[in-house]
Write a structure and sequence with these properties.
About 35% of the residues lie in helices and about 15% in strands. By secondary structure, the chain is an alpha/beta fold. The chain has one domain: 3-Layer(aba) Sandwich (Rossmann fold), CATH 3.40.50.1820. The chain is globular and about 80 Å long.
């Protein structure tokens, strides 16, 4: 009997180890939303394929991250319509890519002087593996510095990210210096801790997560230099360090990232405006015509406040709720 129990125990431990490895492997290799993805679904793959095409340049920019490695970032350079508007850098979420910017583009171009859309490692056309928001903020900040060098240094820079990209944008701006001139952050559907969306997605797909996910995140935290508990990741304390205005947009019915995370991030920031879109979920703030007008209005008004030849206008009132 003891031999059978030992065998069963070893089998269970082996299963948990294999399941945890699969979870970590899956997290670092999200689905790729590439040109092939767009062709298969009959949707635009770039700004030039939109119903009303927008001119752009498809290029790569070499970025050196905080781990010392060089990453060739796939980038769209899109000219905006307002020469006095901010430069906006768009960062996608896990499993998304630059393609996710396209539904927002008609709102953004009239109020921006330039739009930079990039694919971080492991997303879209970006080579490598996703770091779940651990190393990407350093790359984003390096991209912002490159943009600052290559354009009018007076022009304000706004960081706009959704889901994982929202947290990356907050973390990048939180670590920016005064010389970096990050003048605003837009965080769409953000979350505080790295395992929040992972638990939701695994649960909704019918996969186990209660045992394997904590093991996977502890191993990934050690691997990515964040520590087993990912203590430095929490986006709410990082929002507290922001020196620029923050706009947080979140759907009230988001079943991937709870709206309470958006409220926590909003409360932590000293100059923040929270817009909760009633009835919206995690991915339909711009694709559902019921919710797009409110999302577009909030983003447009926020960016218009940055329109000035020499820098941003006064920030929104602290913790204004909508």
């Amino acid at each position: 009997m003891s031999g059978l129990l030992l065998l069963l125990t070893l089998g269970l431990l082996g299963f948990v180890a294999l399941l945890s490895w699969w979870t970590a492997h899956r997290l670092r290799r999200p689905p790729r939303r590439t040109v092939a993805y767009a062709i298969a679904r009959g949707v635009p793959a770039n700004p030039g394929e939109m119903p009303e095409p927008i001119g752009y340049e498809d290029t790569t920019i070499a970025l050196r991250g905080d781990n010392g490695r060089t990453f060739e970032a796939p980038v769209w350079l899109i000219e905006g319509d307002d020469p006095e508007g901010p430069i906006l850098i768009a960062t996608p979420g896990w499993g998304d890519s630059r393609i996710g910017l396209l539904p927002k583009l008609r709102t953004l171009t009239p109020v921006c002087s330039r739009i930079i859309a990039w694919d971080p490692p492991g997303l879209g056309e970006g080579a490598g593996r996703c770091a779940l928001g651990a190393h990407e903020p350093g790359l984003l900040l390096e991209l912002a510095r490159r943009v600052r060098t290559d354009t009018d240094p007076r022009r304000g820079i706004a960081l706009y990210g959704w889901s994982m990209g929202a947290g990356i944008s907050i973390a990048a701006a939180a670590s920016a210096t005064t010389e970096d001139r990050i003048d605003a952050v837009i965080a769409e559907s953000p979350y505080r801790r790295p395992w929040t969306p992972a638990h939701s997605v695994l649960r909704q797909a019918g996969y186990p997560y209660r045992v394997n996910a904590p093991i996977a995140f502890a191993a990934l935290g050690w691997r990515l230099g964040m520590g087993a508990r990912w203590g430095a990741f929490d986006r709410a304390p990082l929002a507290r360090r922001l020196r620029c205005p923050l706009l947080v947009i979140h759907g009230s019915d988001d079943d991937v990232c709870p709206v309470s995370d958006a409220r926590d991030i909003d409360r932590a920031a000293s100059r923040s405006m929270l817009v909760i879109v009633d009835g919206a979920g995690h991915n339909n703030l711009w694709t559902d015509e019921r919710f797009k007008p409110q999302s577009a209005s909030a983003v447009r008004d926020f960016l218009l406040a940055l329109r000035a030849p020499t820098g941003p206008s006064p920030a929104p009132a602290a913790n204004t709720h909508g």
